[in-house]
Amino acid sequence: MEDHIQRLIQEKIVRETQAKTRRHFIKSCAQGMGGLALSSIFMGCDPLAKPMAKKTVAFSERDLNPLATLAPPFAPKVKSVIYLHMAGAPSQLEMFDYKPQLQKYHGQDCPQSLLEGKKFAFIKGTPKLMGPQAEFKQEGQSGNWVSNFMPHFKKVVDEVAFLKAVHTDQFNHGPAQLFMHTGSARLGRPSIGAWATYGLGSPNQNLPGFVVLTSGGNTPDAGKSVWGSGFLPSVYQGVQCRSKGDPVLYIEDPDGMTRDLKKSTIDAINKINKEEYAKYADPEILARINQYEMAYRMQIAVPEVMNINNEPENIKQMYGVEPGKESFANNCLLARKLVEDGVRFVQLFDWGWDTHGNIREGSIDLGLRNKCGEIDRPIAALILDLKQRGLLDETLIVWGGEFGRTPMQENRGNKKMAYKGRDHHGDAFTMWMAGGGIKKGVSHGKTDDIGFSGIEGQVSVHDIHATILHLLGFDHEQFTYEFQGRHFRLTDVEGELIKEILA
Amino acid sequence: MDVLKQLLGRLHPLVVHLPIGFIILGLLLQWYDRKRKEYTKVISLVYLWGGISAALACITGYLQYLGEGYAFDTVKWHLWSGIATALFSFLMYAKLQEIQRIDFLGKVPIAVLAVLFFVLISFTGHQGGNITHGEDYLVEPLPNHIKSALGFETFEEKPIVLNEENWQEALIYDDVVKPILNNNCVSCHGKKKTKGELQLHTPEVLLKGGENGEIIITNNPENSELYTRLVLPKNDEDHMPPKDKRQPTQEEIELIKAWLSIGNPFEGAIGELGMEKELFLSFFPKKHNADYPDIQIAAASQDTINAIKSHGLHVEHISKASNFLEVSCINKPSFVDSDFEIIMPLKEQIAILDLGGTQITDAIFEKLATLTNLTVLKLDATAITGKNMELLASLEHLKSINLTGSHLEEIYLRNLESFKNLEIAYVFGTQVEGEGVRRLKDGQITIDYGNYELPPLPSDSIIY
């Protein structure tokens, strides 16, 4: 064994020397001299500067482990977040925002005053209004409206706080999803989960701090940027896990590689890294050593936590899981298990909510009903399961899409379509939150009689972000990251706390 | 011409510094030359220049008074003393030049004149400063008690004190509206400063309004500037208070609106007026609602924390604002009763302790009872049966206890009744039978039995 390592080290030295050309030598000499001069200037100026050698030894815990936990500025209400995103945008008018008046106007032309200056993805000319395609009832003690598409949800309606007048300024899936998850419709910003793991770290040393689970057949239109780390260090991006096959791609050792061999490989690499560290005292090397070890531990821990087969039968029934398949129900159960194990942010994406009415699956009466059936039981089960385990009080659940849908029937190409559908609509849609620090059984915000615009308690995407950060113990205006000479925030220069739904 | 007038007028604050400089220079030279009298000629020349520049300052000052629309009462002292300064400077020149015509001053010693002159220019300068910066400019930084000792009126925030018991008896104007206006508006619209000719410190002046007329239209907040100015976008020029000043809270603004819409009564208690409690909730004392006790404690040393972490235990501050800690065995499932010694140095600081999934037994309760500030305790997925759990009854901060998936036995569950401030216990997945929630101790303690079910429905499309 020792021999192997010695040979590896020897090889490394030889390679290093071979790789260095005369030009490298001169270049590094020049840099070195310049650096020496500069550092003596800076050190001389700063009376508080510590000698170099000391500084590299006194690294913080974060240098070693980028996911080491940090205390938030204020006492947090929740430790973890589970964000349920219905990619494609669910119709608020068939789920939670009951508009009996809209039924009255069913089939009539949409008033021109509403259409002026508005952009729609597909609607052309003058569309017709379409009444709710589901039946509504007031449920629970709170008496909040829930449609018959969500029959199980009534059991948890008193746990959630509805936001009935959310608005966004994007009307296409990609930009709207980016906006919803990164606070900007353009690429390059960190997602909410990345901000959360950057700000707080994650307590479990064997699991990623930010896990993403997808279902419904496709990843969101905006791609993996919706769980990206933007300008934050890439270690804070979401780790996509799968409920079918290997939970993380390439997590299994290849054939012929035993666990012992893997261990000794990593030991050898780390031994070299440690020697490298002894030579250069660069904390980056320590971080690398740590990451190798974490990856080795994750190989065992991730498949374990991602395995739902060991759950009791009644729990599997409650969620309606489909073992071996990729389903939203499986992901909800996994979300609970991950949160139970201290994962900071769990992001669920379910694809297939884009109900334009162009195909049967995308119809507002048939397709949407099926999609609701796929999430109704799992969501109710998730809330109840977290509750009975004492986790609901320290977890925040957020539900929503990237926008809502029009009160008008879609008339793509100014023609009658094969099925009933609604177009993209960002002026007013419904989201809800539940869990720690959230008022139970309230409804905030109102839309007009036909559900076109918010008329009371309008909240923006930034407001939602501000509220999520608040519950995690941050002031969204103070929580910044310096990049390209500017202090960036998740909420940019906007966002106000939605106090009405805070307990 | 108007342009020139205004432009010259605005040069006044610049020009005034010339005479001040000359005159101070003259006075200093006079003092320096008091014995030898060698520089008399120079000094007289300096005073001549001083006089000329002071006259210029007087002219520009007068133009500014006309152009900027100051009230004569505001500037009169500065104006007269400014003219006096100019004249005095010429007088000093004449005296030093020994011009015959001022013989009547012959008997007054030059030193006395110099002292008088110094007083005069200081007074003039101070008056001028008061006009531009406001009368309290210099005293403003002083602490309140010194200010009041000096005879200045002090601005004090008047807190709004309401609570569950007294809110209905509180007087709407004196106890709520007046303090809101006092804390947010009166520093500019009050007795001392009256910007926009508007005062807001008494009922009479509130009804009187300001330079744009009335600010209260009875029963009509949407048209009353007292309200509408508050809700304009912050960047709007008419937004009040100005955007860099302290802003009233959303709740305070709502309250002003509510008060205006019931006819802005200056008398009467909240209860009599039938105003809703919701409007006042934000003024009630904030309940401490966090997972640690509402007390101050000493911080644990970083070395102690690091030593405990090196055993594989997870230790973190609950927030940067508190010294309380959360300790968890999330990365150390091998934790046994005897390992408790490791965390003993933190026994005062631990508010949240998570021993879930560890190897502990009922012997742990005796040790847990020493954690005086323990607020949240998690013993889920352990072998504890609840025997000796009553030892925790002495922990007065313990709010929540999680026993899910443990070996908890029914007979020990009743011990929870003796816990002082326990709010919730989770017992799902134990041998204790039950479902949903039940309350103990007159509803103070919630026992969550869990076992929630979602019975199958015919419409179910996903079935395990």
From TrEMBL, chain A:
Bilayer-crossing regions: none
Cross-referenced Pfam families: DUF1501
Protein name in the entry: DUF1501 domain-containing protein
Organism: Ulvibacterium marinum
UniProtKB/TrEMBL annotation, chain B:
Keyword Transport annotated: no
Record keyword DNA damage present: no
InterPro entries membership: Cyt_c-like_dom (IPR009056), Cyt_c_Planctomycete-type (IPR011429), DUF2231_TM (IPR019251), LRR_dom_sf (IPR032675)
Annotated TM spans: 14-32, 44-65, 77-96, 108-125
Keywords on record: Heme, Iron, Membrane, Metal-binding, Transmembrane, Transmembrane helix
Family matches, as Pfam families: DUF2231, PSCyt1
Domain of life: Bacteria
Region forming the signal peptide: none
Boundaries of every Cytochrome c domain copy: 146-264
GO molecular function: electron transfer activity; heme binding; metal ion binding
Protein name: Cytochrome c domain-containing protein
Organism: Ulvibacterium marinum
